[in-house]
Structure formats: C-alpha cells, structure tokens
Amino acid sequence: MQLLENLKWRYATKKFDATKKVSDTDLEKIKEAVSLSASSYGLQAYKVLIIEDPEIREKLKPASWGQSQITDASHLIVFCNYTQVGPEVIDGYLKLKATTQGLNFEDLKGYGDFMKTKIGALPDEAVKAWTAKQTYIGLGNLLAASAELKIDACPMEGFEPDEYDKILGLSEKGLSAAVIATIGYRSEEDATQGNKKVRKPIDQLFETIK
C-alpha cells in the first residue's frame, strides 16, 4: 500500500527551502484532492485560501508565533470555516447537486428542509465549531496528497485566528481561519527531518469491540 509508505515519509516540516516552489501542476492536484474531501451533508462549508503574496505572509508571521514556515514555504494554505450556514448556503448546494446529478431542484426540498431544521437549531458557536471540524478533513487530504507528490507540508494550529481574520478581512466575508498548513520542500538544515516517528503501538491505539 503506497499510501502507508507516503505517510511514513512525511513529517511536520519545520524549516523549508525558500528557493524551491511547488509547481502549478502539483498545486492543482493538491487542490483537487482537497476538493474531493468528505464533508458533512456535502456542504463544504469552508473556503481555502492559497497565499503566495510575500507581503501578506510577512504580516501573518507575527500572528503565527513568528514561525519561519509562514514566509519560507512555497505556499501558505489557510482553511477558513463558514461562521454561519444559512438557508442560502443549503439552497446553493442543492442547486449544484441538482445540476450535477441531473435532478429536479424541487425534488430536493425535503432534504433541504431537513438540513435547515437541523443546522438552524444549533447555537452560533456550535455551528462555528462544526464547520471548523470540516476543514480538518480537507487538511488530512492535503497532507496525504502532498506526501504522494513528495511535497513537504506542515499542519499548524500555532497561530492567532482573530489576527488572521483581521489581516485577511475574513469576518466581513462570514469566514474565520480554522487551521493552516504550509507546503514546499524541506531545507537540508531542517534538524527534525531525521527524527523517527513517535506513534502509539497499534494495539494501544485501537480497541476492537465485538
């Protein structure tokens, strides 16, 4: 299973080679892998920002605990969750579903009403927590796809979401930064690249209930 070998190869890269860039072709493959991620109800209630602009990344660096990956990696990826999921989001998804699958939009009304009832009953903070969780599924696929392409990546929670929201103007768009990742190529000076993976034994991590 090649996936296992890819996952053994990858690690959270701490120091990137700033002179090496991910090709447009490989970036498109990573984007497609993220777009194919599972999401609750299929809504994909998040947006992914790919930040190349060096000036913006310099502004984001202090809000990222000064970590060098923010400016040295080829690309900075910001997963932004929806802060609200109103009827228009659900209707937009159902229209896309109807068009894609050759269905009648009106025939999906019952499913739409079900989603609106369930999501509408959630407090605002619960909605934000729920949509933020969805971004991590996309992040997982980004890491796996990058590993297959032998592109290094570093998932990062070490940043200040509120500052990201301000710098990137996310709040007025109904978005909030949930988790970030940097992709590129490891520096030969990255001292952590030779470290053995530390993982619980399989029999400790998993328990079979029969």
From TrEMBL:
Q: Which Pfam families match?
A: Nitroreductase
SUPFAM superfamilies per UniProt? FMN-dependent nitroreductase-like
Gene3D superfamilies linked to this entry: NADH Oxidase
Q: Out of the domains of life, which is the source? A: Bacteria
Q: Which parts of the sequence belong to the Nitroreductase domain?
A: 7-185
- UniProt keywords, alphabetically: Flavoprotein, FMN, NADP, Oxidoreductase
Q: Which cofactor does it need?
A: FMN
The cross-references to InterPro entries, in alphabetical order and at most eight, read: NfsB-like, Nitroreductase, Nitroreductase-like
Q: Which family does it belong to?
A: Belongs to the nitroreductase family.
Q: What is this protein called?
A: NAD(P)H-dependent oxidoreductase
Q: Which organism is it from?
A: Aquimarina gracilis
